[in-house]
Amino acid sequence: MAGIVVVVAFGFLIAKTHVMTHLDLQGVKALNALHTGVLGALGSVVYRLFSPVEAVALTVLIVVIIWVVSKNVRLAATFAFTVAVTWVSSDVVKLLVHRSRPDATAFPHHLAQRVVDPSYPSGHMVFVSTLALTLFFLARGTRSHILVAVAGAVVTVIVGACLIADGVHYPTDVIASAVWAAAVTPLVLGLSNRHLLPRTYLLPSSVETLV
Question: Which residues cross the membrane (predicted)?
Fold first, then answer.
């Protein structure tokens, strides 16, 4: 719960006082200088790949894979519910804080598409962080949990760097998004397993203990 309060309070602070804007913009400029050639193309692909429509499709695909591989309906439903609630709830913060995007005239390389919605927190980063954390929690106690943890961490860092290099988010947007996911994901996972989904199907024992 403390993480949620910190993200919201910090968001209002930086959006209303612009206390971090100059330093944040220097971070955007530094990474945006790398937004050329292959790295630039990667950044653009990452932004597109985790946009809302594509993110929903990816979530559905993962839900189906979990269901087919585990033959556990509750496991798949828990994953879907946790990702959806953690991700969508961050949009409420985005609308309340309403921080402007980085000034596109301050750096040379831009995405082809114009991004006009509020900047804080990053929906892309919340989605990817939540995806990685939820898969990690659900994989705990299995042989694949280390692989899931490492893969999730690597993908999350790459996506965060790409979002800054794309010039669509400040570093503090990205950091706050990861904090939001880390704070909300366990809460939603616990709510799902205690109150919303019947215990007809068993999750891994480590997840039951966690929540």
Answer: 49-69, 76-97, 120-139, 146-168, 174-192
